[in-house]
Amino acid sequence: MIAIFKTIREAFSRSGYLAFISAISAILVLAVHNDYMPPFIIAWILFWLIDFKLRNWKISEDENKVRSLLFLFLGLNLIFLIGLFYSDNIHTGSVLFFRRLSLLVFPILLFSPGYEIKKRIDLILKVYVTGIIAFLVFCFCYGLYRSIIFKDGSWNFIPFDPDQPWLNYFYGQLLSIDQHPSYVAMYSLLGMFISLEFFSHKSLNGKVRLLWLIAALFLFISLYFLSSRAAYLAVLIIMPVFIWIKFKPRKLNILVIFSLIIILGLVSVLYLKNQRVSIYFDKSTDPTILNDGRLEIWKSALKVVKKSPLFGAGIGDYYEALDKEFKQSGFTTGYYKDFNAHNQYFEILCIAGISGFLIFLTILGLMIAFAVKDRNLLYGAFLLMMLIFFSFESILSRFAGNSFFALFSFLLIHYKASDSVGEIH
């Protein structure tokens, strides 16, 4: 019996091996379907505590810098918690606060993740990419399954519901099944940058590098079908810079410039053909459809901010305050559907006011500083991507968004490119 306990203790003390297994499992589930993450997160917390205790609660020298970012995340959570106490609707506020617990849990788990996780970040990222590709392949296969119909003695390919012919099984919400397509696009976009990162590693076998290039292309093409406009914008802004720095040519010649222009042109044409984008350039389209409701949402959010500029409406009363403005402005769709601010910056201002917004901006600024100082191109691409998505969606209002942001904000800060080509110079 003593020998068994000794063996178990050695397993725990192997540089956090069980914490690493829990982490890699949680990240795989995040990529495939985040609703099933909690049990793996709980296991990760338990094994991390054991590992941290075996390390005598000590953090390494390179982890000291991350403490400031951890404290800022803790501060943002504290602002949310304080907002709960001055909210009238405590029940709703409690639900929304606990929905954001990932913003507290992942920073604690990953500011000092342990030797095993830091040593195998490459493997964790590879598992993440594998997970998101597996999920997308399943989505496309399921779309194909729903599109093939046996009718009048023959098989027919009908990629839409006969009762709703304007909705395609291979686009947007119908493709991503029960997950928001913008979040799946966000996951896919990071997966694409990770794949390009590994493709750039010259130390890898040529066939392996080709597989990573194929993975990047698959994820890139998937963005078209997911139809996220934020993803389109992120690709056009970030990808040319990422590719330029990652595969920086020794000479700035006409051929290189011409190639980049051609690539950007093809990408733009491809995206403009997408139904969700092309509608904005169709002169016959009703202007009220083009508005997409976001202008009314943002105007109402600003009115909420003006009424409680310093500390916000509070996490419990945020939706009620926004609904009230929707009703007064006559935006019935937003009122009856309980829309959020559809902009992370506005949402922070509505919930926590200028005080919370300043903490949030400081978090983003510090992360950018880390990316530049450490010459961490992958971290920089992730941050720019998030800044763009924050402009169109309230990413942190859902578990799928805040877990993704908090996890990779701290995981990628420990990432070191395997080749010098991966560094920013």
Word description of this protein:
It is a single chain. The chain is mainly α and 425 residues long. 70% of the residues lie in helices and 4% in strands. The strands form 2 sheets. The chain has a two-stranded antiparallel ribbon with strand order 1-2. A two-stranded antiparallel sheet has the order 3-4. A hairpin with a 2-residue loop joins strand 3 and strand 4 (164-168). The model is unreliable at 283-290 and 419-425 (pLDDT under 50).
Name its key features:
4 strands; 21 helices; two-stranded antiparallel sheet; 425 residues; single chain; mainly alpha
**What's the total helix number?**
21
Q: Pick out the low-confidence regions.
A: 283-290, 419-425
Give the fraction of residues assigned to helices. Answer: 55-70%
- Please tell me how large the radius of gyration is: 23 Å
- Proportion of residues in β-strands: under 5%
Total strands: the figure is 4
**Biggest β-sheet: strands ordered side by side in the sheet:** 1-2
**What is the end-to-end distance?**
56 Å
Morphology: globular
For the biggest sheet, the summary is: 2 strands, antiparallel
Structural class: mainly alpha
Topology as a string of helices (H) and strands (E): HHHHHHHHEEEEHHHHHHHHHHHHH
Q: Overall pLDDT, averaged?
A: 84
Q: What's the gist of this structure?
A:
With 425 residues, the protein is mainly alpha-helical.
